Structure formats: C-alpha cells, structure tokens
C-alpha cells in the first residue's frame, strides 16, 4: 500500500496537474465538455489527439477551449493553441520570476493567448525568442521596463481604424493606435512569463475619445505603464493624471476568474473588471428602478452612461435585483443613469460628488417630442502617482531618442517614390492596369507589407482581362488591409468582370452594372473583419443555393446566433461561421454578405446602420433576419445647420443620431460617412423614435449637452436643425497671465512682433507622444481655418522632421532635445505658475503677451478650442 502511494506521488510529480485545485479543475473540464459539443463541427481540428498530450498540456488546452470566444474556436486549430501553451510554460521555466507567479494569475494573465479583439498570430513564440536573452537575469520589475523599451524600439503611436492588427503585423508596420500598442506590449510581456493585461477607459470624461494601456503583476502587485511608451518607473505615463478623471477603467479576465477586483460583468466565459480604484477617487452609487405604481422594477435593465463624442456611452449594464436595484463604483463626476423594462424607461444625470443614491420611475414610453439640455461636469484632476527625478527623466529621454533612431532606420527601408519601381516588374504589354501614381499610392500605403502588395501587383500589371478594374479592386481595401493582407489573399478574392458586364465565379455567371458589381461583388472587405479566403470555398460549400431568399432561409436554419459567446467582438470569418455554425449577430451578417457575393448575388452591409442590402431587379433591397414581413418603407430625414461655431459640425465630435430600440437609444455610426459631411444632409431611415444628440465642451472638460427626441412617421419626411449650444466666453483678458511682449521668440523677433495683429499659438509637444500626435492630426483637419487666420504657430518638439507637423503651414518648428525645455516654454509655465504639467502645453497669446487660452496634457478637441481664438 505504501509502495503504491509512493508510486502515485512519483507519477504525479512527473506528470503534474496544471490546475491543482480539484474543484476548479473539475469545473473547467465540465465547461470544456460543453464546448466540445458546441464545436463538434471542428472536433478533429481542435480536439483530435488530446489524450496523447501530457496532463499539464491537456489541462491547459482544456482551460483555453472551455472559455475562448467563438472567433477562436472557428478560425484556429489545435496546433496554434498548443504552441501558445508550450511557449507559456517554457517562459515560466526559463525566468526566475516564473516560480513566483501564483497559479491563477499565470492561468488568466500569462497563458491566455488573446489580449482583446486582435487578429491572432505566433507573436508569443517570436517575442520569446527575441526577448529571452535580453531580460534573463533581471528582476521582474526591471524586466517589465526592459520589455517596454524593446516594444518602443519597434512600435510607435499612430491613429488608425478600429480593426486591431495582429502583433506581428504591427511589428511589420512599426506603428499602431493605443489598442494595438497595448496588445503588442501585453503579448511581449506574457511571452516572457510576466502577467499582463490590457486596461482601458472606454471613454474619457474630460474630453472625447478613449485610451488603452497596460497593467503588469510585479511581485504581488498590479502596476501600470504606457504601452510602447517607456518611462523610468512603473505607475508612470502621460495618461497618469487624465486617468484620475475617469468614470471607469475596464479589463477582461478570461475564464472563471476569482480575483478581488470589482466585477462589472460576470459570465461563464469571462469577467469584466472595474479597475478604477487603481487610478482615481471613487464612490459606490446605488440606483433603484420603480414602476409607475411604485413597485420595484425587478429585472429592469439599469445602465450607467457617460457623455463622450456627442452620445451617452454605456459603461456598465445590470439587471435590477428583487429590490429593483443595481450599483456601480465610479468616479466623482456626473454620470447618466438609464433604466428600462424594454418598453418604459427613464433617465437622470447623477452628480456623484454630492449623491450616491437615485430612484427612477419608468415613466417614459418613447413617443414624446421634446428637447433636454444637460450640463455635464467630469471629475476633477488628481496628481500623478510617481514622478521621475530629473536625472531619471534625462536618462530615459536619451534612451527613447536612441530607440526612435532604431525604429526610424527600419522604416527608412520602406520604398520611396524614387525606389519603389525596383519592386515593380517592367510591363511588357500594350496596356497596364495601373498608372505610375496608382502604383506608388498602393506601395506607399502598404508600408512594411510592401513586398506582398508588389507581389500581387506584379502578377496583374498586364492582365487587363476584359475590363481594367484591378486598381478599383485594390482601392476597395482599407489602408490597414494594405499593411497586413498577404498576396495570396488579394489573389484569392479577385473576381472577373468583362466589358459586357459579366462576372463569373465557380461556374456561375451574372450580368451586372459596374457600380453594382463594384459595391456588391468586388470588395473582399465587408465590415471590420480580417480579410481571409472565403469566396471560392463558400461558393463550393453553398453551390446548391439559388437566390438571396434561399440563402437567408439556410442561414436562419443552420447558423445559431447569440451575442454572448463571441465576447471579445473579434468578427468570425465567413468560413469560420460556416464551420462552427455558431455566431454573434455581426459575424452572421458578415457571413451572409460574403455568401451572397460568393454566389454572385450583389450585397453589402451598411456599417452606419448595420443594415444588409441585396441587389434585385428593382434596386437595393433590405434584408432583415427574424422578420417575416417586408421591411417598412424608409422616411427621409433632412439635417440642416446654420450655426457659427463650429463652422461645420462633424459626426461624433459634435452630433450623433440614435434610434430607439427596446427601451434605449442605439447610435448610428455615420463617422466619415459622406451622407453627413455636407449640409443639408439627407438620410433615408426606418420610421421610429429618434434622438439627435449634440454637445459642446469647454477646455476644462465640462459639456453643454442637448438631446432632441422626435418621431419619424411613415410617409412624412422631416427636417431637423442641428443645434449646438454655444459656449460662454470664459476669457478674462484683464486677469490673464502675461509674458512680457519684449520676450524674444526667434531670430531676434519679439513676441509683440511675432504675434502681430493675429496673436500666436505656442505648442510645446514634449516627447511627441500620443497626445501631441492627436493635436497635430486635429490641426491638420482644421488646416483651412488656421490658414484663414494667418497667424504663426511656434512648435517645439523632439520630432522636428514629423511629416504631419510640416504640413500645417505657418509654423516654425523648433527642435528640442529630450528632457530639455525651450525658453518660451519656461516663460509660459512661469506666467501660469505651473510647477508640474503634462504635454502638450499649448497657449494662445496676443501681441501684449496675454495668455488668452492654455491647455496642458491630453485633450481631444484641443485644435477646435484654439480655432475659436484665431480670429
């Protein structure tokens, strides 16, 4: 008996459990078995041969399979996930800190391969190889800082669209928005066994937009850092002070997580965590929803919202308990509370500084026309947690400059206007599909993916086929697609179109007007998905289906839809939906449009209204799943604008349009849509109850919000004026801080001479991080307004060769060494009595030296605030 026990212990030691808690292990296994049933259509690709794996590898795989989103079950195979598992264990065994990381922290924040909604790749293995020698022997905290420096060597900030590139695609291009930078950094940190998670404020309270950064678990404590933006210590970053003004900071924890953070949302697959207390003062608020007869509205939905981008964005949503209550921990500012039972609703702006309880009676029904003006005040700014010494800051600045040079040397190898022709084969034909300008445009936009674009282009230089549409085809891809789609996918998605209007696919033919083909057949991109090979595979798989109605019926019968299983909101590929037979609504819609195109049925998804259209003899027809009767005829809404500030309102910064659905308003996504770029703007919409929401924001962050509720009735076109509440002039020239007008600006010119009759802008960019890049981008968007003003901008930056900055016009760019300050910056800071401040530091100064406006730190909309003084 004793020998048997010793043998058992020896055997366990050689083949240990990955999950040592038996109860938790059993729960994971039960959840895994349920997932096997759901993914039975992919059983061999996902689960084949698992009984031959070691116990550790098998249990780790079971954990991943049990909780991964549908997108991953559908689009990746066991080989990919097993590679992730084995590299994670290799990292734990390689580094000294591996043995210090608790099992549950390792399970949820190292082993997990996904950070957010990025496309997946083998970055963990690549990064482990790159970083292993660089961080081995360092302390855990030193290793975190070193990994972030490595990230900065390879990636810097640039705004882009909402699809999140895979880390290796970001590496190839060397640029990414904050969501991509933080995905990249978390992947790198996990690659060396350091627990890391992406955390983000879904919306700022003091300005528009949002931001994502990174938290790392170091020696028992979660600390934060700016992804790809190294600082001398942890708990530092340009966002450290802005984060003290947040109403919510989120993170997701994969699987059944048992940490001590507040849980915003708990499901069987993941937990959504509220990390706000790490950054800002908080208060827990409790809301009670009641019916009109005073009874608790049990089961009603209580939502907590905040103003941002001209809408009230939902931070958290809870079902009311038996007392009709739900609560949230949030920051000390104004928050919108919305309660609904699906038919009746009510809302109220709650000042959390003064009040922590609220009762709402569900008295509204979505039928009254009225206007509601609200004044929204964000939390006050706090202090940074950690400040570097001057010595630390200077040393870090020198290192950042060196890392910038390494990244610059890499991107300098991208083709130039002069060198790109070396990539393009000489066209030995009478005609070519591309002009020189078109070829350069495609190669330039492809950046680090230039070899793949050139490979495809070279294969089609002379293949005009019957109608030259190859350039139009490539233009149907987004700029990000050109940076990360491989040549074989460009090739697989290409379709024929003859001069007589005939297009062909897998033995099918259709005769279509070119504009219909161009919108409804040609594009491989449908929404925000990664473009994969689906055209010929779907055509073969669905070859028996004839017509859009038959395809719709097949989809409704064969594709199970729920919006809980694909919780990272990474769209499932069309072939993934076909294989898994499960999808969220958005992925189902993408699948349907892709299947239509594969069967030569023109179709597209209107991403502003999430509406599917297919082409029929009488034109584009709406398709609605789950609706038996034909869709109602649309009604024309005409939007006009006669205000002066802004000169022309922009969708999201200034206004949004929302439709009432199930007790709340859903915002249409008309960002960048030509339908709302000129006024009057006309929109053809379904009859219903709508809200036209506008807002104007003061430099301090408070907002004048306006919501106009109205009904669009069938057969009754309607006009609405976009009304933006004017901001009061808070400028007090007599009491303004002042710089002596005799102060020398440059080349002996005094401030009085430089500012002249127009005034001047001073912009001190600091290290030219994300906030400075946002400012320059905004100024470019308002370039015409600044040029009409005619004054000068004095810009001090560590990146004097910045191409965007040089496009502004009327700007003197002054180079600044890392860690140094321009004399004018010192004068502005002294006049404003600023001892510590964040970049960019911006001021509008008149010829008498009065600082009429200033801003320090991150603010979206800063350029628009400056324009108001440029008169």
Strand order of the largest sheet: 16-29-28-25-26
List low-confidence stretches. Answer: 1-12
Number of beta-strand segments: 37
Considering DSSP H and I runs of 4 or more, what fraction of the residues is helical? 25-40%
Distance separating the two termini = 93 Å
Structural class: alpha+beta
Q: Count up the helices.
A: 28
Notes on the structure:
The chain has 871 residues and is an alpha+beta fold. A five-stranded antiparallel sheet has the order 16-29-28-25-26, with no helix packed on it. A hairpin with a 2-residue loop joins strand 10 and strand 11.
Topology record:
Layout: H1 2-14, H2 22-38, H3 43-47, H4 55-67, H5 70-75, H6 78-94, H7 103-109, H8 123-135, H9 140-154, E1 156-157, H10 167-173, E2 175-176, H11 178-191, E3 196-201, E4 211-218, E5 221-225, E6 250-254, E7 262-266, E8 270-274, E9 282-290, E10 301-308, E11 311-319, E12 325-331, E13 334-340, E14 345-351, E15 357-361, E16 370-376, H12 390-411, H13 436-446, H14 450-459, H15 470-475, H16 479-484, H17 487-493, E17 502-505, E18 508-511, H18 514-520, H19 535-541, H20 548-558, E19 560-561, H21 574-580, E20 582-583, H22 585-598, E21 603-606, E22 611-616, E23 619-623, E24 635-640, E25 655-661, E26 664-667, E27 681-685, E28 688-697, E29 703-712, E30 718-721, E31 744-746, E32 749-750, H23 751-755, E33 760-764, H24 770-781, H25 783-789, E34 792-797, H26 803-806, E35 811-815, H27 823-831, E36 841-845, E37 851-856, H28 862-867
Parallel strand pairs: 1-2, 9-15, 19-20, 24-30, 33-34, 34-35
Antiparallel strand pairs: 3-4, 4-5, 6-8, 7-8, 9-12, 10-11, 10-13, 13-14, 16-29, 17-18, 21-22, 22-23, 24-27, 25-26, 25-28, 28-29, 31-32, 33-36, 36-37
Helix pairs in contact: 2-4, 4-6, 6-8, 8-11, 9-11, 9-12, 10-11, 13-14, 14-17, 19-22, 20-22, 21-22
């Amino acid at each position: 008996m004793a020998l048997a026990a010793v043998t058992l212990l020896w055997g366990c030691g050689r083949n240990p459990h990955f999950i040592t808690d038996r109860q938790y292990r059993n729960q994971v296994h039960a959840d895994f078995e349920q997932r096997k049933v759901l993914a039975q259509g992919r059983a061999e690709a996902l689960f084949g041969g698992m009984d031959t794996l070691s116990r550790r590898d098998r249990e780790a795989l079971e954990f991943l399979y049990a909780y991964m989103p549908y997108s991953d079950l559908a689009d990746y195979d066991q080989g990919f996930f097993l590679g992730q598992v084995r590299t994670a264990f290799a990292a734990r065994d390689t580094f000294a800190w591996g043995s210090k990381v608790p099992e549950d922290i390792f399970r949820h924040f190292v082993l997990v391969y996904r950070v957010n909604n990025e496309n997946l790749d083998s970055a963990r293995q690549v990064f482990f190889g790159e970083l292993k020698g660089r961080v081995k022997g360092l302390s855990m905290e030193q290793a975190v800082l070193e990994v972030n420096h490595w990230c900065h060597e390879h990636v810097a900030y640039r705004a882009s669209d909402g699809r999140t590139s895979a880390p290796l695609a970001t590496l190839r291009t060397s640029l990414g928005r904050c969501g991509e930078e933080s995905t990249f950094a978390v992947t790198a940190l996990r690659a060396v066994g350091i627990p890391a998670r992406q955390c983000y404020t879904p919306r700022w309270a003091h300005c528009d937009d949002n931001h994502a950064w990174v938290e790392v678990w170091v020696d028992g404590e979660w600390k934060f850092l700016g992804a790809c933006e190294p600082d001398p210590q942890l708990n530092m970053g340009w966002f450290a002070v802005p984060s003290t003004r947040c109403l919510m900071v989120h993170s997701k924890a994969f699987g059944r997580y048992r940490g001590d953070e507040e849980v915003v949302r708990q499901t069987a697959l993941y937990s959504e965590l509220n990390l706000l207390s790490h950054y800002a003062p908080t208060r827990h608020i409790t809301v009670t929803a009641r019916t009109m007869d005073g009874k608790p509205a049990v089961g009603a939905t209580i939502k907590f919202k905040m103003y941002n981008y001209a809408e009230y964005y939902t931070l958290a949503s809870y079902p009311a308990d038996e007392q009709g209550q739900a609560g949230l921990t949030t920051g000390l500012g104004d928050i919108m509370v919305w309660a609904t039972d699906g038919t009746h609703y009510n809302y109220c702006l709650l000042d959390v500084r003064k009040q922590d309880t609220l009762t709402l009676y569900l008295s509204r029904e979505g039928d009254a026309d009225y206007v509601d003006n609200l004044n929204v005040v964000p939390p006050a700014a706090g202090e940074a947690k950690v400040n570097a010494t001057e010595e630390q800051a200077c040393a870090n600045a020198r290192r950042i400059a060196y890392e910038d040079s390494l990244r610059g040397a890499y991107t300098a190898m991208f083709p130039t206007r002069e060198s790109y022709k070396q990539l393009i084969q000489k066209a030995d034909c009478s005609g070519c599909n591309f002009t020189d300008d078109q070829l350069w445009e495609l190669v330039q936009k492809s950046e680090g993916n230039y070899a793949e674009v050139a490979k495809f282009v070279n294969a089609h230089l002379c293949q005009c086929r019957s109608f030259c549409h190859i350039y139009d085809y490539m233009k149907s891809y987004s700029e990000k697609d050109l940076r990360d789609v491989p040549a074989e996918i460009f090739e697989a998605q290409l379709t024929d179109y003859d001069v007589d209007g005939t297009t062909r696919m897998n033995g099918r033919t259709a005769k279509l007007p070119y504009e219909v083909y161009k919108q409804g057949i040609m594009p491989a991109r449908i929404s925000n998905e990664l473009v994969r090979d689906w055209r010929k595979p779907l055509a073969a798989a669905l070859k028996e289906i004839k017509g859009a109605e038959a395809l719709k019926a097949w989809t409704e019968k064969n594709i199970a839809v729920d919006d809980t299983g694909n919780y990272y909101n990474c769209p499932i590929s069309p072939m993934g939906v076909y294989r898994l037979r499960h999808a969220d609504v958005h992925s189902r819609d993408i699948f349907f449009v892709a299947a239509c195109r594969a069967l030569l049925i023109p179709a597209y998804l209107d991403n502003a209204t999430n509406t599917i259209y297919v082409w029929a003899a009488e034109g584009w027809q709406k398709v609605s799943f789950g609706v038996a009767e034909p869709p109602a005829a649309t009604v024309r809404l005409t939007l006009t604008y006669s205000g002066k500030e802004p000169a022309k309102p922009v969708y999201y910064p200034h206004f949004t349009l929302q439709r009432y659905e199930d007790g709340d308003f859903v915002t249409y996504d008309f960002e960048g849509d030509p339908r709302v770029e000129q006024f009057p703007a006309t929109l053809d919409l379904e009859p219903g109850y709508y809200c036209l929401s506008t807002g104007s924001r003061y430099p301090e962050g408070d907002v004048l919000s306006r919501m106009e509720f109205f009904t669009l009735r069938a057969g009754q076109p309607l006009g609405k004026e976009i009304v933006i509440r004017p901001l009061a002039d808070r400028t007090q020239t007599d009491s303004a801080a002042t710089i002596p007008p005799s102060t020398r600006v440059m080349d002996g010119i005094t401030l009085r001479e430089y500012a002249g009759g127009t005034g001047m802008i001073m912009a001190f960019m600091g290290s030219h991080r994300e906030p400075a890049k946002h400012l320059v981008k905004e100024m470019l968007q308002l370039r015409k307004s600044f040029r009409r003003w005619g004054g000068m901008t004095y810009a001090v930056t560590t990146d004097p060769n910045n191409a965007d900055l040089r496009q502004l016009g009327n700007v003197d760019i002054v180079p600044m060494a890392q860690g140094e300050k321009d004399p004018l910056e010192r004068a502005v800071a002294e006049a404003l009595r600023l001892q510590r401040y964040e970049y960019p530091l911006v001021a509008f100064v008149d010829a008498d030296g009065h600082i009429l406006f200033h801003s320090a730190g991150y603010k979206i909309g800063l350029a628009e605030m400056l324009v108001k003084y440029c008169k």
